[in-house]
Amino acid sequence: DRRLGTTGETATRAGQSPAAASGNAKADTSPAAGRDARWTLREGLWRVTNDKGLKGCGRSAIAGGVGVVINGNVAHMTGLVTCGKIHLCPVCAAKIRAARSEEIDTVTGAWQAAGHGLAMMTLTLRHYRRMPLGTTRRGERSGLVAVQHDAWITAFGSRAGKMWQRLQADHGVIGYVRVWECTQGENGWHPHFHVLLFLKQPWTRDRADAFEAAARGRWLRSVEKAGGYRPNDRGLKVDVPRPEDAQQFSRYLFKNQDGKARFERWAPGGELARADLKQGRDGSRMPFEVAAGAAAGLAEDVPLWHEYEYGAYGIRAQYWSNGLRALLAGLVELDDRTDDEIAAEEVGGEGLALIPAETWYRAVIRYRGRPLELLKAAELGGAWAVRGLVESWGLIWGRDVLDAPQPPA
Hints:
This protein has 409 residues and is of the alpha+beta class. 40% of the residues lie in helices and 16% in strands.
């Protein structure tokens, strides 16, 4: 038994349900199943995380109590702390990345409609199992993420110099959006950048190849200068959309399976922003797949998750080049909310119950699975189902749990 704790659950790889892991049942791909998986994973991470924000996310009441709300056929909770940790929290990450993905698809659609072009540049490192993920924290800068970010600064960032400016001008690169992503596999951690290039005009493949060759030389030299192993020729690649994909940018073109995704076509929003929906390939795992193992108590995954938590600290999930957002604001309305604001935004609806903070801590959050049970009851039968559930826990309606406050007339 490789579990560290006795959770009463079967420890499965990559967060699969026992049925899915055994191949006896097809995974539920409904939105409700995705929500349930994220809430369950976050609850499991409360027990193993070293991050204070994640430990309190969806657990700590903000003020007097927690509300159970129904909007259409989807239930929500109000009055709970959110951490806004896009790299660490499966619940906050889903909200934040959905908003960022929608914005990317909106701006890329408008950019192409105006006659401009797009390309995707991917930057990777050579890495081996013994190499630590490291950190970019001040005074502790080390490991793969430090090499990655230092190489970026020299090749394409603030210390890139006039040659990089000239390369952009020669190829009509107006700006870029850079997104950080990380996987883990047999060869250890694999941090990499996806960089969406905004072009004055669409590129031919020959034009893309010319830019790729020049940019690759810069990246290879910069990685070595930063202390990393010299990448091979696949360390930098540039992709351009196929002609038949040109009008597909504003759609989510992936299939969601058990909280993960397989991209059917090249969609910038999903490829850049929806790392929470991706599934590792060729034996690699996405961070939330490692998190699922850690939450289940797998001995090898707990330290991996702690290493990832420490290494992801302070890393921007998404970075826009100077002046690009101001330029795009002339084409579309941009989403200027912070990650924290997106994560904390509450969806309105009909209030079904109010759980005072004392009851929340004493009788709900201390029992594993109860918050999610409340949501499911609300979706199944509204206020009466919620009342029946809380009374089955031995609570008294009207004292321990209250009717939801009515909006003013």
